[in-house]
Each structure stands twice: as structure tokens, then as C-alpha cells.
Amino acid sequence: MGRSDLFVQVVAQGLAMGAVYALIALGYVMIFKAVGVFNFAQGDFMMAGCFLGLWLVSTGTIPLFAALVLAVLLSAALGVIVEIVAFHPLLESPSRSYLMCTIAVGIIFREVAKMRFGADPLRFPNYLGHGVIKVGGAGLSVQYIWITTVAAVVVVLLLWFFKRTKVGKAMRAVSEDREVARLMGIDTDFNMRLTYAISSALGAMAGVLIAPVFFAFSEMGRSFGLRAFSSFVLGGTDSIVGAVIGGLLIGLMENLAGVYISTQYKDVVSFVVLIAVLVWRPTGLFGERGEQRAG
User: Fold this and answer.
1) Does residue 118 form part of some domain?
2) SS3 86
3) Does some domain include residue 289?
4) Per-residue b/e over 235-264, b at no fewer than 16 CB within 10 Å?
5) What is the pTM of this model?
6) Domain for residue 52, yes or no?
7) 233 occurs within a structural domain
8) Which residues contact 26 (CB under 8 A, 6 or more apart)?
9) Is the Cα dihedral 86, 88, 89, 95 positive or negative?
């Protein structure tokens, strides 16, 4: 295999990983725009969706793709329940209380997953296929092509939803100013729950997309969530487009570093980028504002 072919394969895999980070990062953006606080449980919603899918598939009574769709819907419902029970009571509290609550929710998710499924990685059905598509001399895995394609479709639909639908526009209004939106007659509580439902569903989609490649394990939410957080900060904490671009860039940089520098440095790339952005450009590539206080 020539160097150019290897480069094409590395880029394709990096874009697929970046697409997964982007889906999780979109959840970070939605919650930050709505509440003004980082939701550190976002990665664990990814893990929860992945294990819900694995559990539904293992029952043997539900077709595979129906099980995956149901796992995403159940994750959305789980996001609503967590918002009502844990997050909503802290909506008017200082941001540090809300932030600590998101960390606690993530820990609970991981511990429940360990108790139910154990700490060892579990194989997820490889519904994405094992094929390879030849592009010149490079062989591109259909798994990564499917991941990138599905993520791209989800992002396009999400952008359309926010820009073209009445509910999406209402959610944007609530994210800009919750009090003004309430005075205009918008049901802010409903919109907050819908925000958590969508962000949780995005995390679950990321989980069921990447699980056939990386297995399912209780710490996957923390691992992918931290990389997605770096993507979220890199793109700009209030930018949907920035989250997507940030995720793709992190995925590309990780893979390029792993192949052309050393695999030992692959896992630190996202954190080096995070520190660099916080030091030299705290608003990220497309961001416009810093952290707010809840309420």
C-alpha cells in the first residue's frame, strides 16, 4: 500500500470517529445553549443507549434495526426523566450545583451499567457489515462509511429542524433567553425536556453506531465523552456547526497522530487541543460567548 492510499484510509477512519464525537458534542452544545452549563453526563447517555441496544438485541424478540431505533427512543425518554428528577430542580441554582449534578448522574449511569452488564467489554452485533470498498489502492471499511453517512444525515436533519420547524424555532428562542421566551408564551419546561430528549438521543445514536467497532463497555461514555467535550470546546460552546467541525478535526488529528507519530500519542491529542483552545482561544473556532450561570 502506498503512502497516499494509507493517508486516504486514515482520513476516512478519522472522519468516522470525528462524526461520532460530533454527535455527542451536539448534545453538549444543546444543553449549554439551553442552561449555560456543561453536561458531563452526555457521554454516559451514549453508553446507556449502547447498552439499551445490546439488551434489546439480546432478547431475540425484536428485529435488530427496530431494537436500535427503540434504544435511541428509550434513551431520549431517559434524558427527559433525568431532566425532570435531577436537573430541573436545580435550574435556578448556581451553575456549580447543576454541574456537579451532571457528574453525579454520569457516575450513577456507569455504576448501574457495571452492575447489570459487568466491567468487561461486550461484543455488539456488527450490523454495519465487514466489507471493504476499494478507492484506488485504499480499502475503506463499510463500517466507517456507514458511520460517517448516518451521522451526516442526522446533522442535516437537526439543522433543518432548528431552522424550519416551529418547535425548533421555539427551542432556539428558549436557548437565547429563557425568561423572554416564557413571557412570549413559549412553554420553556417542555422545551427544556425536549432539549434533553434530543441530546440524549444524539448520544445514543453515537453509541449504537460505534459499538460494532469498539465493543460496549461501561467506561465508553467517559472515554468518548471527553473527546467529544474537546470537540465541543474546539468548535465553540454555543455553535452547532462548530461542534460538527470540532468533532471531525479531533477525529482526524487523533488518527493522523496515531499513524504518523505514535499510537501512544493518539489518546492525548484531544486533551492537548482542549488545553490549547482554553489558553489561546477560549471561545473556540465559532463560539461567541463564555460559560453562563444556570438560571
Assistant:
1) yes
2) helix
3) no
4) bbbbbbebbbbbbbbbbbbbbbbbbeeeee
5) 0.92
6) yes
7) yes
8) 155, 158, 199, 202, 240, 243, 244
9) positive
